[in-house]
Design a protein that fits this description.
It is a single chain. The chain is mainly α. It has one domain. Helices cover 48% and strands 6% of the residues. Strands 1-4 form a two-stranded antiparallel ribbon.
C-alpha cells in the first residue's frame, strides 16, 4: 500500500463527504470513457477471463483513486455479500459484474506481453486527469488498494442506508 494511504476510517470519511456530489460521477465517467477509447486503439485482448481479479493468485494489487471510488459508489449499487479473500468481489465466473464502473487499473491491465509497452504511459496520463478532476471538485486525493477502498465504501454505503447518500 502506498505510504500516504489513509487509514480505512479516514478513507470512509473522505468518501462519505463526497458520495452525494453529483458532479464527480460524470466527470470520472468522462475520463474513463476517454481511457477506454485510448486503450481500444491498442486492441488488447483478454485471455484469462478474470484471473487478474484474483489478486493473491495473480501476484499483484489494484490501486484506485478517491474519485474512482466515489464514482463506483455512485453508479454500482450491488454489493456481493460473499467473495474469496484477496479477490475482487465483483468478479463472478470470469466476468466483471461492475464493468461500467470498474476503475482505470482494471481497464488498462492486460497480461499479454504486447500490452506492456503502452500501459504505463496510458495509466499515468489518466491518473493525472483523475487527480485533476478531484482537485477541481475539492475531493481529497488518495491512491489506495482496491479491496481496502471497497471496504471503506461498503461501510459508507451500509451506514447510509435510507439516506440521500445511497448509490443509485
Amino acid at each position: 500500500m502506498p505510504d500516504d494511504a489513509p487509514p480505512i476510517d479516514e478513507l470512509a470519511s473522505m468518501l462519505a463527504a463526497h458520495l452525494a456530489d453529483g458532479r464527480i460521477g460524470p466527470a470520472v465517467a468522462e475520463i474513463l470513457a476517454r481511457a477506454d477509447e485510448t486503450i481500444a486503439y491498442y486492441r488488447p485482448v483478454c485471455w484469462n477471463r478474470g484471473e487478474c481479479c484474483r489478486f493473491g493468485r495473480a501476484g499483484h494489487r489494484l490501486y484506485v483513486t478517491t474519485a474512482e471510488l466515489i464514482y463506483f459508489g455512485q453508479t454500482h449499487a450491488a454489493w456481493p455479500a460473499d467473495h474469496q479473500v484477496d479477490s475482487c468481489p465483483h468478479q463472478r465466473d470470469g466476468r466483471c459484474q461492475a464493468r461500467r464502473a470498474r476503475p482505470l487499473g482494471c481497464r488498462v491491465f492486460f497480461c499479454q506481453a504486447s500490452a506492456r509497452w503502452w500501459q504505463p504511459a496510458v495509466t499515468e496520463a489518466f491518473l493525472r486527469q483523475l487527480r485533476e478532476v478531484g482537485e477541481r471538485l475539492a475531493v481529497p486525493y488518495a491512491y489506495v488498494e482496491w479491496l481496502t477502498g471497497l471496504e471503506a465504501l461498503r461501510q459508507v454505503v451500509s451506514s447510509a442506508k435510507g439516506s440521500s447518500m445511497q448509490p443509485s
